[in-house]
Amino acid sequence: MRLFIGIPLSEDLSEHLKKAWHESADLPGKYRPTSPENWHLTLAFLDEVPEDKVETLAELIAQSMEKPPRGEFLIDGFETFPAKRPTHVTARVVPEHPETWNAFIVQLRDFISLAAPSIDRKPWTAHISIGRAEKGMALPTWRKEIEPFRWKPNEFYLIKSTLTAKGSVYEHLYSYPLDL
User: Fold this and answer.
1) Virtual CA dihedral for 67, 3, 41, 25, nearest 10 degrees?
2) Largest separation between any pair of C-alpha atoms in the chain
3) 142 to each of 14, 73, 74, 87, how far by Cα in Å?
4) What is the C-alpha separation between 75 and 151, in angstroms, rounded?
5) Which residues make beta-bridge pairs with 118?
6) Is 139 exposed, middle or buried (0-12, 13-18, 19+ CB in 10 A)?
7) What distance in Å separates the CA atoms of residue 37 and residue 168, rounded to the nearest whole number?
8) From residue 120, how far is each of 22, 113, 114 by CA, in Å?
9) Rounded distance between C-alpha atoms, residue 19 and residue 13, angstroms
10) Distance CA 147, CA 118 (A)
11) With contact defined as beta carbons under 8 Å apart, do 47 and 119 qualify?
12) Rounded Cα–Cα distance for residues 160 and 148 (Å)
């Protein structure tokens, strides 16, 4: 099954982003929007994991929580991502303690890599995907500032992602508290 570890948005943050997005006059070209119900902050993309490894994976994630990261995130704009040949439209997310979050993500990936060997190991960049470029296309470099919003999530999830003709369907499998 296709899995990732992520933090769904609070209702307040989701509404703030929807309002700011709809007020944007100069959008970055052709892209496929992500359904606001699926907006989230990805901590780790695991790709395909055999179903018989999911329980082990859930236990490994729990073990990685000895020192969960703390603090808020600041969401202060939209931009295309990554910098070279952008393929995503994202909400820019700035962790209050980036070094703590980066260390946690590295530790989390290390803990779970045996159960999820296809885990994405690219350096973590906090962002919320708002849309993707059309297949095979790149987006122009684009950035728009918005009224900043502070967000303090209190948990994250191991999430199953099922691809359908109408987009991805997410199912929360396990939750992990961030405020221990």
Assistant:
1) 170
2) 48
3) 21, 22, 19, 11
4) 8
5) none
6) buried
7) 10
8) 32, 10, 13
9) 10
10) 37
11) yes
12) 30
DSSP per residue, the chain: -EEEEEEEPPHHHHHHHHHHHHT-SS--SSEEEPPGGG-EEEEEEEEE--GGGHHHHHHHHHHGGGS---S-EEEEEEEEESSSS--EEEEEEEESSHHHHHHHHHHHHHHHTTT-TT---SPP--EEEEEEEPTT--PPP-EEEEEEEEE---EEEEEEEEEETTEEEEEEEEEEES--
Q: Which of 127, 38, 118 is nearest to 81 (CA)?
A: 127
Write down the pLDDT at residue 108: 94
Q: Among residues of the chain, what percentage have pLDDT more than 90?
A: 81
**Distance separating alpha carbons of residues 77 and 147, to the nearest angstrom:** 8
What are 125-147's pLDDT values in tens digits? 999 999 999 888 999 999 999 99
Task: Return d(Cα 23, Cα 55) in angstroms, integer.
Answer: 43
pLDDT over 90 (residue 179): no
Question: Alpha-carbon distance 30 to 52, whole Å?
Answer: 40
Report the alpha-carbon distance of residue 123 to residue 83 in Å, rounded.
14
Domains of the chain: 2-177 (3.90.1140.10)
CB 128 within 8 A of CB 42: no
